[in-house]
Fold:
Amino acid sequence: MNSLHKHCIALAVLAIAAAAQVPPVTLTTPASPQKVPGADGFIQRWLLLEPIGVTGLTDSAVQAAVKKEYFPDQFTVIPNDGDKVALGDSQLAWHAVDTKLYNVNLYHFAHALGKPTSDVLFWAVTIVNCPQEMHDVRLAIGSNAASVWWVNGKEVIGIYGDRQTVIDDGVSRRITLNKGPNIVRAAIVNGGGATDFCARFLDAEDKPLKGFTVSVVGTGK
Amino acid sequence: MKYAFVATVLALASLALALEGQIGIHDPSTVVLCNGKYYTYGTGGASLVSDDGWTWKRGTTLPHRGLAPDVIHIGDRYYAYVAANIGAQPKAAINMIWSKSLDPDSPDYKWEEGGVVASSDGVEDCNAIDPGVFLDPTDGRLWLVYGSYFGYIRLVELHPKTGKRLNPNDKPRDLAINCEASDMIYHDGWYYLLATHGSCCRGADSGYNIRMGRAKKVTGPFLDHDGVDMIQGGGKLLIGSGGRVVGAGHFGLLDLGEGVQKFSLHWEADLDRGGASVLDIRPLLWRDAWPVAGENLKEGAFEIESVRTGTALELAVEGMPVGGRRGRGGRGGGGPGRGPGAAPGAAPGAGAGLGGGGGGRGMFEGQGGVIPPQDIAEVSKSWPTGNIDVRMATYLCQAQQKWAITAVPNAGGYPGSPYFKITIAGTDRALAATADAELVVLPAFTGGPEQLWRMDQLADGTWRIMPKSIPNSKEALVLSAVGSSFATLSKFDPKSDKQRWLFKTP
Structure:
């Protein structure tokens, strides 16, 4: 390793350290057990896993990336804040967050932790608690970039390519939300630059669904 | 009808193109719906009936076999106004008859005489033929316009509960001149007088064309777009000859509700039917508060684009860029050539990139030569063989985004058009409605009603796309954009862009 390389690495380490000191200004730690959706129905409470390195945004690349098993019970786990998963030699932590905005800024999230934001996969999970069965609703999401979404274990949305977050970009077929908890899970793959997502449910008239709460207090592993 | 005596019952040939079946008619009345069937009546006792507005057959003649009838449905009655010359032109009279049904098989089918509602004495400046009846939706008053080239188009008021002349002694009001076959419609604060200019009854030499003026009052004055009063010969063109048809005449509004309007007319000569006079039904559009004649959908290959989202309907398969996948290069420095994700099926050499990664062309210089359209046979090799979902995406000229619209023979239709199948161009993969009111593309078209599509052009020129039926459902749902990247079936909302689509030539 020559001196130039060493110099570059040192600068990179300093840059990461400096970046890690920047708070995720749009994200806060949940302060209540339940949260109602925002004015436009957006789900603003999530558990986010620190990013996993992946490449490719095409349909097949994203499907391969999200279907690969990175940690046990990947498609069923309801993690708690602070839980960790082992990935090779490293450990990645789950973080419970509330977003102040309609969207969840994953760039803020990763950047604040000193984690990479490009060529990465973020896992996100939340629990939607319904007072009664809700029929003919649709999950509606936007993501930067590609993403795949599951509701109660069933894959309902996949949007691919290098795209920006647009409200209701990807929309599921009509589904039924159970009375009680419903698990919404997402895998968001970013190529480079900004990365974020937003999600809400639409009712049978394509209006934002409300009347439910959101929590991230899971049943544990 | 300039030469009324020339008009006779026409040879009712059954040739393909335009409407199907026996569509020979001259001076058709406004197409009217009665118990699920469409009816129109023409000069000389001609009568046509259709179950769907697409395939027509001869119907039952009215008791008065006169000139250019018009029909209106008010309450439980169908009023027919039929003109007849009662001497040498322009001596004529318009008789009213009414029935509670137009269906000869109905027990309510019985025509009652209503008497003369307008006439001309052979000397005055009017020829009392070619009636057009109009119910004002703003106040429920009923009006009759009539007349031909012998003088003026005139207006008289009728009684909306009897169909008879309201005040027989009132002097008719002159509205227009140098035209015939007039009719009136109302739209968004304006009254429109539509009348036929030019000559009729000369086959392909007929100059018939439908023109119009508008007024804020039913009594006029009706000015055209240049401000010329129709009583001085003004008239903005709605429709004239074009394509394989010559001489447009006898406008009649067919309002299908929910903002879908069409109009009936006859062509003096259909060149594909030996020059016969035939019925036609066209979409009626609106632009700058003027009616515009739309076009029934023609077969072809199209991008189907959502007005709501600007994205295009596509088969949910991984797209391959036209010319092959390639990486993003540095500005001016050349790109990396074919990207790592290059999929099978890329055109040979198509991904050769932007100058070979550094030494050659810059990223904006292309790959040289003409990039051909995608070869559907090649591209589709990687597609699943079974059912495939439908989604929407930014249009990139790719094979899974190009749809062939093809009329389906003997599958029926709707006013003005046959049912179509919608397939991925170059394949038989067919768009279909599912039992849960969603969409799917089937491996092949099998002719089921859930695979037949109706396309109605809306007032703004966009299109409403509707399956003939949805499995296990009687609901009438239409293709609808939900979000940017998904399409479904839902109830039509005339005020929404979600269900408005564009057919663009790919």
In short: The CA atoms of residues 409 and 491 of chain B lie 28 Å apart. Helices of chain B lie at 376-379. The interface with chain A takes residues 317-318, 340-341, 343, 393, 436-438, 482-486, 488, 490, 498 of chain B (CB under 8 Å).
